[in-house]
């Protein structure tokens, strides 16, 4: 017996959903590669990748196979038992990174929540209750739980919810002297995104990350890299820290790790992991067999020279075209980011209008993102066909031509 579906429309959203989102005017119903179809059969090119999630596009055959194969076997057992896909995915992540240990969660916010709690526990156990301060960057984003909005440097997400979590301070990103002035032996962790994603696709400087690592070592503070957006091949390396050659003590991953199936992970060293003993932290769904089976397929496919090497090639194609469009229509003045996490920075006359560009693109059957009001963001599938890149950019050009009246 199968479930009968009642018909639904976009207008229903405004009646039945808690109004924290304002989704587009259409409802996607099917996807294949980097194309998406809506209820009316309209076809769109997808440059959003579900916000840096659909790392292998929609309905990738290997991910469909991994999910359906696991779905026939075992969906869930909780962490009262371990399971084979979780152990296999953990081993893959350990083999590919600095990490010795993995904790699985269901989202980026949960992976960060685990990281921040672990850092505090670590500080408490190695130096006592005073070593509890966390330093993060202004304009950073780490998720939407109370701890993660308190740590992130964006007041619009953290104010108006009563008292915040204490012991957190914020310093300007890419400003080593500001961190030097703030860090002390009370600092248990410094948390950074190697490229600030939501904050406008802003990469860290090489010398900054190297200097941050040194300051953390001098003060016995853990360095946490939030790679929820930059991880799993997005920058052309498996994780962005590998570009910089600066190794964190804790790394969080989510988004692309599940390729569209919810999963998160916190990676760390043996030295740090031992402070999370039995019962100190937990989750019901984290490490779920379905999620980990998909994650295993994602990592196996992404962590190959073919896929990672292809990111750089596609990135060049994107960047060159965006710069040309920027010069021609005078909307963008700069393209920044790495690999397939790119931000087109709006020029003076277009400041604050990223949402308008996004809407105009949708009207031309193109899905794109913004990263704050001043940056148009692109985070497509890492295996997007070059023909889809060109078609999407042609649609973007039509949107820009219409917006500028050119
Ligand atoms: C998206 C994001 C998160 C939050 O992940 P969720 O899965 O939405 O909880 C955390 N950190 C960064 C850097 C992100 O981009």
Automatic annotation (TrEMBL):
Free-text cofactor note: Binds 1 pyridoxal phosphate per subunit.
Catalyzed reactions: N(2)-acetyl-L-ornithine + 2-oxoglutarate = N-acetyl-L-glutamate 5-semialdehyde + L-glutamate
Requisite cofactors: pyridoxal 5'-phosphate
Keyword annotations from UniProtKB, A to Z: Amino-acid biosynthesis, Aminotransferase, Arginine biosynthesis, Cytoplasm, Pyridoxal phosphate, Transferase
EC supergroup of this enzyme: transferase
Residues bound to N(2)-acetyl-L-ornithine: 144, 283
E.C. number: 2.6.1.11
Pathway connected to this protein: Amino-acid biosynthesis; L-arginine biosynthesis; N(2)-acetyl-L-ornithine from L-glutamate: step 4/4
Superkingdom to which the source organism belongs: Bacteria
Pfam families reported for this sequence: Aminotran_3
Stated family: Belongs to the class-III pyridoxal-phosphate-dependent aminotransferase family. ArgD subfamily.
SUBUNIT field: Homodimer.
Full protein name: Acetylornithine aminotransferase
Protein species of origin: Geopseudomonas guangdongensis
């Amino acid at each position: 017996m199968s479930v009968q579906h009642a018909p639904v429309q976009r207008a229903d959203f405004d009646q039945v959903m808690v109004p924290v989102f304002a989704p587009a005017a259409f409802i996607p119903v099917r996807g294949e590669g980097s194309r998406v179809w809506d209820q009316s059969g309209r076809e769109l090119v997808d440059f959003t990748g579900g916000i840096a999630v659909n790392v292998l596009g929609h309905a990738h055959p290997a991910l469909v196979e991994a999910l359906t194969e696991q779905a026939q076997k075992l969906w869930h057992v909780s962490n009262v038992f371990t399971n084979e896909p979780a152990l296999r995915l953990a081993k893959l992540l350990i083999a590919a990174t600095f990490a010795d240990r993995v904790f699985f969660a269901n989202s980026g916010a949960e992976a960060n929540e685990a990281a921040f709690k672990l850092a505090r526990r670590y500080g408490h156990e190695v130096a006592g209750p005073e070593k509890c301060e966390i330093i993060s960057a202004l304009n950073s984003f780490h998720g939407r739980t109370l701890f993660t909005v308190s740590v992130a440097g964006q007041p619009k997400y953290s104010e108006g919810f009563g008292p915040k979590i204490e012991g957190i301070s914020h310093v300007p990103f890419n400003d080593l002297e500001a961190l030097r002035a703030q860090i002390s032996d009370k600092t248990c962790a410094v948390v950074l995104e190697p490229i600030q994603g939501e904050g406008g696709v802003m990469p860290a400087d090489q010398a900054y990350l190297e200097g941050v690592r040194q300051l953390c070592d001098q003060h016995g503070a853990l360095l946490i890299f939030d790679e929820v957006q930059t991880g799993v091949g997005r920058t052309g390396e498996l994780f962005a820290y590998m570009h910089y050659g600066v190794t964190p003590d804790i790394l969080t991953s989510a988004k692309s790790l599940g390729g569209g199936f919810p999963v998160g992970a916190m990676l760390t060293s043996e030295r740090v992991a031992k402070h999370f003993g039995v019962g100190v932290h937990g989750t019901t769904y984290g490490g779920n067999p379905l999620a980990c089976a998909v994650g295993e397929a994602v990592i196996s496919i992404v962590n190959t020279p073919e896929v990672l090497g292809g990111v750089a090639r596609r990135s060049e194609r994107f960047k060159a075209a965006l710069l040309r469009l920027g010069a021609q229509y005078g909307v963008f003045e700069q393209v920044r980011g790495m690999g397939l996490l790119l931000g087109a920075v709006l020029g003076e006359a277009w400041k604050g209008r990223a949402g308008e560009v996004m809407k105009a693109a949708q009207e031309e059957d193109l899905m794109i993102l913004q990263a704050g009001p001043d940056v148009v963001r692109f985070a497509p599938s890492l295996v997007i066909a070059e023909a889809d890149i060109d078609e999407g950019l042609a649609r973007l050009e039509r949107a820009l031509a219409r917006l500028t009246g050119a």
